């Protein structure tokens, strides 16, 4: 467990860089180039940091514990803490399933001293989105109970196979917790079950929350405003480094066929309860030919995990990250234009630096460098080189 | 005039296997389609990339060869430039390809690299023109070479990027079907079609690929085929229906293996696998 944080320093004292001191006017008296450069630096630093982690817990099981107490009705986030958080969670859920294809989410709320499981662990984003929608009409009342909420999460996370990464994300607004017993005992159990607990606070730092995260290897943060809150919650999109106690195993998955024309109309297994019209479009389990209208899903008949190849491929970017490019001065490079977007390198401040792929030696502009590392995750220069492209993909 | 312009980026396969088909007809179709696109709307713009087994190359707008950026007054002048740029680029590529002997494993063009560059070009044009108007853009891939699956990862990365940028990837394959490119068209909402003969190419391009996605929705096109969404296993690169997946890194194996060759973890093969297979019965 690495813990280099100074315990005496509070959240509101740290983490602020004095960016205003580094902003300087250029010769023509403009601030803009200086500001652009700071933004560029931060972006690149973030990318460099990310490359360090190697082993990831990609099969994630995450419970979101949402504080639904009186404290959520405060209006310091607009329109209220409740609505603002739900809105952020909506985007989070969509993005989470996009980036973590065979992971599962669940939602627990706590109010009036009890905790309630609103949505079971599942990899169907629609179910969670429906749950979020329903929660919008539920009023926030009473006091929350951290212990009860943790117990609910624990009861279902504990029985998961040992190769999964178990996580709890607590979004907490209250400054108190109303527990039936000693919370320390619950924390002990959480720790033993190898669950990683992270807390995002809406109001202030709570000692008990900070303790939980510290003991389970999670992260702790308190938001300043709505944008910051979104950023903090979205940090949990990336899989955490796998804990050492985790076992690894082979999971059986099926790649369903999508049949349109010659199949007989059938009910899809995912919407059995609300009796959808019979149709032929869908995905068919390769083991038992049950039909599903959307993937990923876990086959209700035979228990096979059903995914498509692109679903899995979404995670490969965690696995084969694009190595960061070397930054060199534009005049040191012989290239006249960006290899990717064909932008001509001019002598302006924006093109002061160019970026060279360490594998294929092609030169890219700043925008392409960021875009390749943030979104594309593979280098078109390497893909256009017959020797490298054969070698990297096998 | 109210219609907004469209940026079409063509990725043209120039693999030596083209010799098996009628190269002349093929190139004529490419150039004719490029010209038609530019002539159809004053605001339309074009990018052309070519790829063979050795490289990918920007043909238009080309950076070598002067005079390309200078004269832009007449439309005909521009069309002439497109023709000349494509011709010049292809000649250079053909000379380079002829100079080096082809290995048997290089039976596929480096299309994924060209697609990646095309997407970066689209991205730049979109950010440049975001202030004046919303630029509609799409990618058109013409493929003739065979399919080996060796570029799987870069293809998928390109599709997911295109999907994020909401840029449709249209695919027209000459000769045999290509499942991997079909996936790309399906993911990004583009059109996939396979023509048997090169002689059908121009007609197909004009009928199915000239209009934008909005118009296509109104056309009575044949229903999309079944898309093959199987994955290739990491060990043999064959497509599989059911597979074992490493819980740590999601590598795909067609049969049980004692350790993952991608991330080097050793598998606890006793419990979970047995439980799952019992459930099957
Ligand atoms: Zn099944
Ligand atoms: Zn660039
Ligand atoms: Zn490279
Ligand atoms: Zn295999
Ligand atoms: Zn692995």
Automatic annotation (TrEMBL), chain A:
Pfam families: C1_4 (PF07975), Ssl1 (PF04056). It comes from the Eukaryota. Transmembrane segments: none annotated. Keywords: DNA damage, DNA repair, Metal-binding, Nucleus, Transcription, Transcription regulation, Zinc, Zinc-finger. GO terms for molecular function: zinc ion binding. CDD domains: vWA_transcription_factor_IIH_type. GO terms for biological process: DNA-templated transcription; nucleotide-excision repair; regulation of transcription by RNA polymerase II. InterPro entries: C1-like_sf (IPR046349), Ssl1-like (IPR007198), TFIIH_C1-like_dom (IPR004595), TFIIH_SSL1/p44 (IPR012170), VWF_A (IPR002035), vWFA_dom_sf (IPR036465), Znf_C2H2_type (IPR013087), Znf_RING/FYVE/PHD (IPR013083). Residues 61-246 form the VWFA domain. A zinc finger (C4-type) spans 285-302. GO terms for cellular component: transcription factor TFIIH core complex; transcription factor TFIIH holo complex. Its main location: nucleus. It is found in: Nucleus. Belongs to the GTF2H2 family. This is General transcription factor IIH subunit. It comes from Scylla paramamosain.
Automatic annotation (TrEMBL), chain B:
One of its GO terms (cellular component) is transcription factor TFIIH holo complex. One of its GO terms (molecular function) is zinc ion binding. It is found in: Nucleus. InterPro entries: TFIIH_Tfb4/GTF2H3, vWFA_dom_sf. Keywords: DNA damage, DNA repair, Metal-binding, Nucleus, Transcription, Transcription regulation, Zinc, Zinc-finger. Pfam families: Tfb4 (PF03850). GO terms for biological process: nucleotide-excision repair; regulation of DNA-templated transcription. Component of the general transcription and DNA repair factor IIH (TFIIH) core complex, which is involved in general and transcription-coupled nucleotide excision repair (NER) of damaged DNA and, when complexed to CAK, in RNA transcription by RNA polymerase II. In NER, TFIIH acts by opening DNA around the lesion to allow the excision of the damaged oligonucleotide and its replacement by a new DNA fragment. In transcription, TFIIH has an essential role in transcription initiation. Belongs to the TFB4 family. Part of a TFIID-containing RNA polymerase II pre-initiation complex that is composed of TBP and at least GTF2A1, GTF2A2, GTF2E1, GTF2E2, GTF2F1, GTF2H2, GTF2H3, GTF2H4, GTF2H5, GTF2B, TCEA1, ERCC2, ERCC3, TAF1, TAF2, TAF3, TAF4, TAF5, TAF6, TAF7, TAF8, TAF9, TAF10, TAF11, TAF12 and TAF13. Component of the 7-subunit TFIIH core complex composed of XPB/ERCC3, XPD/ERCC2, GTF2H1, GTF2H2, GTF2H3, GTF2H4 and GTF2H5, which is active in NER. This is General transcription factor IIH subunit 3.
């Amino acid at each position: 467990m690495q813990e280099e944080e100074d315990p005496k320093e509070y959240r509101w004292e740290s983490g602020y860089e004095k960016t205003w001191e580094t902003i300087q006017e250029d010769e023509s008296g403009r601030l803009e180039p200086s500001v652009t450069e700071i933004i560029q630096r931060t972006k690149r630093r973030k990318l460099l940091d990310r490359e360090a982690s190697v082993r990831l817990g990609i099969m994630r099981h995450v419970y979101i514990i949402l504080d639904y107490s009186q404290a959520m009705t405060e209006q310091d986030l607009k329109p209220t803490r409740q609505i603002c958080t739900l809105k952020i969670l909506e985007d989070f859920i969509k993005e989470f399933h996009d980036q973590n294809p065979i992971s599962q989410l669940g939602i627990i709320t706590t109010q009036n001293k009890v905790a309630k499981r609103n949505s079971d662990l599942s990899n169907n984003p629609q179910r969670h989105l429906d749950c979020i929608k329903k929660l919008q009409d539920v009023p926030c009342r009473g006091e929350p109970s951290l212990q009860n909420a943790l117990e609910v999460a624990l009861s279902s996370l504990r029985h998961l196979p040992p190769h999964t990464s178990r996580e709890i994300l607590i979004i907490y607004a209250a400054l108190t917790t109303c527990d039936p017993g000693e919370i320390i005992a619950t924390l002990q159990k959480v720790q033993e079950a190898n669950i990683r607990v992270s807390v995002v606070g809406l109001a202030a730092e709570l000692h008990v929350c900070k303790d939980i995260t510290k003991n389970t290897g999670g992260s702790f943060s308190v938001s300043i405003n709505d944008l910051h809150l979104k950023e903090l919650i979205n940090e949990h999109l990336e899989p955490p480094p796998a804990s050492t106690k985790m076992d690894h195993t082979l999971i059986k998955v099926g790649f369903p066929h999508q049949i349109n024309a010659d199949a007989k109309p059938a009910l899809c297994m995912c919407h059995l309860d609300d009796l959808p019209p019979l149709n032929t479009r869908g995905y068919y389990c390769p083991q038992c030919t049950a039909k599903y209208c959307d993937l990923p899903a876990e086959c209700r008949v035979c228990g096979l995990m059903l995914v498509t190849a692109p679903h899995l491929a979404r995670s490969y970017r965690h696995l084969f990250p694009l190595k960061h490019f070397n930054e060199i001065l534009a005049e040191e490079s012989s290239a006249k234009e960006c290899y990717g977007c064909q932008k001509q390198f001019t002598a302006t401040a924006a093109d002061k630096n160019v970026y060279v792929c360490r594998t294929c030696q092609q030169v890219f502009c700043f925008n392409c460098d960021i875009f390749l590392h943030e979104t594309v995750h593979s280098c078109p220069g390497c893909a256009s080189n017959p020797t490298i492209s054969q070698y990297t993909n096998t | 005039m109210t219609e907004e312009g469209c940026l079409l980026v063509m990725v043209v396969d120039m693999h030596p296997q083209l010799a098996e088909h009628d190269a002349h007809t093929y190139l004529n179709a490419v150039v004719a389609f490029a010209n038609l696109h530019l002539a159809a709307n004053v605001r339309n713009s074009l990018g052309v990339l070519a790829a063979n087994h050795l490289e990918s190359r920007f043909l238009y707008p080309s950076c070598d060869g002067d005079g390309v950026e200078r004269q832009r007054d007449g439309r005909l002048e521009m069309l002439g430039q497109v023709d000349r740029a494509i011709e010049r680029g292809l000649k250079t590529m053909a000379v380079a390809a002829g100079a080096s002997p082809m290995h048997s494993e290089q039976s596929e063009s480096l299309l994924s690299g060209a697609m990646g560059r095309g997407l970066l070009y689209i991205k730049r044009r979109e950010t440049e023109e975001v202030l004046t108007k919303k630029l509609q853009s799409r990618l058109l891939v013409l493929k003739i070479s065979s399919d080996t699956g060796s570029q799987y990862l870069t293809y998928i990365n390109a599709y997911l990027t295109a999907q994020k940028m909401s840029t449709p990837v249209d695919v027209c394959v000459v000769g045999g079907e290509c499942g991997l490119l079909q996936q790309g068209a399906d993911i990004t909402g583009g059109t996939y079609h396979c023509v048997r003969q090169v002689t059908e190419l121009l007609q197909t391009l004009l009928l199915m690929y000239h209009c934008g996605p909005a118009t296509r929705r109104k056309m009575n096109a044949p229903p999309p085929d079944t898309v093959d969404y199987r994955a290739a296993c990491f060990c043999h690169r064959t497509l599989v229906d059911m597979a074992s997946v490493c819980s740590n890194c999601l590598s795909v194996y067609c049969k049980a293996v004692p350790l993952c060759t991608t991330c080097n973890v050793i598998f606890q093969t006793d419990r979970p696998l047995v439980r799952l297979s019992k459930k099957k019965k």
